[in-house]
Amino acid sequence: MKKIRHVVPTLDMGGAEKLVLDMVRFVDKKAHDFIVCCLSGKGVLVAFL
Predict the structure, then answer these.
(1) Cα separation of 2 and 24, whole Å?
(2) CA–CA separation, 29 vs 23, rounded Å?
(3) Could you tell me where the DSSP H helices lie in 1-49?
(4) Contact by Cβ (8 Å): 17, 47
(5) CB neighbour class for 35 (10 Å; exposed up to 12, middle 13-18, buried from 19)
(6) CB 13 within 8 A of CB 46
(7) What is the pLDDT of residues 4-46, one digit of tens each?
């Protein structure tokens, strides 16, 4: 299993944040372990993780 960490300022609505959310939600969870780190706060998209 590969561990992948995404570091973003927040999970507010934006292009990079939406891409991170899509990768976490739709990539094979048996092959990848995702960690999302928000530097400045959670944001509205955190509810969709």
Answers:
(1) 13
(2) 10
(3) 15-26
(4) no
(5) exposed
(6) no
(7) 999 999 999 889 899 999 999 999 989 999 999 999 988 898 8
